[in-house]
Write a structure and sequence with these properties.
The protein contains four helices and five strands; from the N terminus they run βαβαββαβα. By secondary structure, the protein is α/β, with parallel strands linked by helices. A five-stranded mixed sheet has the order 2-1-3-5-4.
Length: about 170
């Protein structure tokens, strides 16, 4: 995407790559670079998730990727449509910052600043120790999620091309 073109979609990988499975979002975002269509902006956010509100300003379709609390099975992937509903409390990962993804989404919703379509891909994490790599179960989900996102973006952009994108 060059400077004169507006992004039709944004993919944001959230997390700290130096804290074990919290690095899932940025790892998937890195895997998407060069694979996502040129009209898609890919960003990594390791700090306060509030920056997302500015990132997605004016972009109609947003996908957020993050690690979640383990509720059933580490490495399990959840795809959630957050456009009309909040992130379920059980999946909301605790944030070391003032605002995590769940809080950011709800603040944006209350301010009328949500994108038209907001999807979250969350993986249940296993360990979040400082200096640790991704756990094997979470690392195994990276390529699966990247592929699912590429396919989803292709379908969305194709629908836009066929005037079916709202």
């Amino acid at each position: 995407m060059n400077g004169s073109e507006r992004a039709l979609a944004l993919v944001a990988g959230i997390g700290n790559p130096d804290r074990g499975d919290d690095g899932f979002g940025p790892t998937v975002a890195q895997r998407l670079r060069g694979r996502a269509p040129f009209t898609v902006r890919v960003v990594e956010r390791s700090g306060d998730a509030l920056a997302l509100i500015e990132d997605w300003n004016g972009i109609p379709f947003v996908i957020v990727i993050d690690a979640a609390a383990a509720i059933s099975q580490p490495g399990r992937v959840h795809r959630l449509d957050l456009t009309d509903r909040p992130l379920p409390i059980g999946l909301a990962p605790p944030s070391s910052h003032a605002f995590g993804v769940a809080e950011t989404v709800e603040l944006a919703r209350s301010l009328g600043k949500l994108p038209r379509h907001l999807i979250a891909y969350l993986v249940e994490g296993e360990q979040f120790a400082t200096g640790a790599p991704l756990s094997p179960k979470v690392a195994n989900a990276v390529e699966t999620v990247a592929e699912r996102i590429v396919n989803e973006l292709s379908a969305i952009l194709e629908a836009k091309g066929n005037a079916g994108y709202a």
